[in-house]
Design goal:
The protein is mainly α. The chain has 12 helices and no strands.
Length: about 200
């Protein structure tokens, strides 16, 4: 799952949403140097990632990725699912528009204490161009993957142009996502309730 899906799955608590969105920037054992509430959000992020990796629909999506890019299939599917969530937002968040949700999220993140430094440097760019709502358009997913290929992955990689795989197999990825997301929402609610 990528930023948008993690933010939604994290539920209503701002610290859980912050941990969900910034979770990939936190390494090592928890709580580490994080406040307890933010560490709990990162722990939820990690549990959701583990759940996604084992879910049959998510596995089906990874299997749709070409052998050329299979090593990066998880990254690709994470972004593809954020696109599909943005496209189907009303089905999963009927009480709040995507734009209102992302604006509230950026405002919450801006005042959240103790966010990882790597994420703090990304947040202004994310908010200024509303990355999360922009995933509604495939071209913005393509741009994110192309930038990741150039700047985030330090070795040669075939990630540039990876959004073409979403375009080529859109119906399949969409069906997988629609099978996965209700289960993921139920799982995240269960984990939050058990704390």
């Amino acid at each position: 799952m990528n930023y948008l899906a993690h933010a939604l799955l994290a539920g209503p608590a701002p610290a859980d949403r912050a941990g969900g969105v910034a979770g990939d920037f936190v390494k090592g054992l928890l709580p580490g140097l994080l406040p307890a509430d933010l560490a709990a959000g990162v722990a939820l992020h990690r549990e959701i990632d583990a759940y996604a990796d084992l879910h049959p629909a998510f596995a089906a999506s990874r299997a749709r990725v070409s052998t050329l890019r299979r090593r990066y299939g998880g990254i690709m599917v994470d972004l593809f699912y954020d696109h599909l969530l943005a496209r189907h937002w009303e089905a999963f968040s009927p009480d709040e528009s995507l734009q209102r949700f992302t604006a509230r999220l950026y405002a919450e993140l801006a005042v959240q204490a103790a966010l990882p430094a790597g994420f703090v440097s990304v947040l202004p760019k994310m908010a200024a161009t509303d990355w999360l709502a922009s995933y509604h358009e495939i071209d913005n997913v393509a741009l994110a993957l192309d930038r990741m290929a150039m700047y985030r992955i330090r070795r040669d990689n075939p990630l540039a142009g990876a959004a073409d795989e979403l375009r080529a197999h859109y119906a399949g990825f969409e069906a997988d996502f629609l099978a996965f997301m209700p289960d993921a929402l139920d799982y995240a609610r269960m984990i939050r309730a058990e704390r």
